[in-house]
Design brief:
Blueprint: H1 2-7, H2 23-50, H3 53-60, H4 64-70, H5 74-94, H6 103-118, H7 121-133, H8 138-147, H9 149-165, H10 176-197, H11 205-223
Helix pairs in contact: 2-3, 2-5, 2-7, 5-8, 6-9, 6-10, 6-11, 7-8, 8-9, 9-10, 10-11
């Protein structure tokens, strides 16, 4: 009778209106997240080659059988970690918003936000591990490129297109995509190299700001039309 009474109760729903996971499924999901979090910590700290499933099991705080129940081998765990990090990276890039209206201000905000992401501890660790393992996992290398550099290039290209339409820029025939790529590489280049080669010396906010300002200044000096105003016309923007 007790079982019948329980089964007749209408299932509770979450705030989103969806029924909650069954207890067993919720536990499995929690364990899967623990395994992924443990793998993330181990891979970002040690790279792919030096990481072992024993290290991942210990970091996750689960049994080895639990690790293998969710991921058949170390390679599958590595793929899952990189894809998860790429998704987080893409989400962070896509959430960049601009408070300024002038092209110089917008480019500076993009540069500052981008450097904060790519020069973070996790950003640098992910870059190192993806580049090191790209020959073994070429599809992950492509995924990383699309989630990071290609995504930020697209954001910059949209802003340059608006400025070009307003007559603010003279790109000299190189095209919007190439101009955007040049700007992003100017932002990332020296800053990224210094932080990659000096892992124990994290860049300060002031240093990131200086790198961003130098890139914006050099880019506009090269491509902004002479004798044009600095105030941008209003234009529609996604988001």
């Amino acid at each position: 009778m007790e079982d019948m009474a329980i089964s007749s109760v209408r299932p509770k729903t979450t705030r989103s209106g969806e029924p909650p996971l069954p207890e067993g499924a919720a536990i499995q999901s929690e364990k899967a997240r623990a395994v992924l979090a443990g793998a993330r910590a181990v891979f970002l700290d040690n790279g792919f080659a030096a990481a072992t499933t024993d290290m991942i099991q210990q970091a996750a705080g689960v049994s080895k059988s639990t690790v293998y129940a969710h991921y058949p081998n170390k390679e599958a765990l590595f793929v899952a970690v990189v894809e998860s990090q790429c998704t987080q990276f893409l989400n962070a890039v896509s959430q960049i918003r601009f408070s300024g209206k002038r092209l110089a201000d917008i480019l500076l905000e993009i540069a500052q936000a981008y450097l904060e992401i790519v020069l973070s501890r996790d950003g640098l660790a992910l870059y190192r591990i993806v580049v090191a393992e790209a020959p073994r996992f070429p599809e992950l290398g492509r995924r990383f490129y699309l989630a990071g550099p290609a995504a930020i290039n697209g954001i910059v290209a949209e802003e340059l297109a608006a400025a070009d339409a307003n007559g603010e820029l003279d790109l000299g025939g190189i095209g919007l995509d190439s101009a955007a790529s040049l700007f992003v590489n100017m932002v990332r280049g020296e800053a990224h190299m210094q932080c990659l080669t000096h892992p124990d010396a994290a860049a300060s906010a002031a240093q990131r700001d200086q790198w961003a300002k130098e890139a914006v200044s050099a880019f506009l000096r090269a491509f902004r039309k002479k004798n044009t105003g600095t105030q941008r016309s209003q234009h529609s923007r996604k988001g």
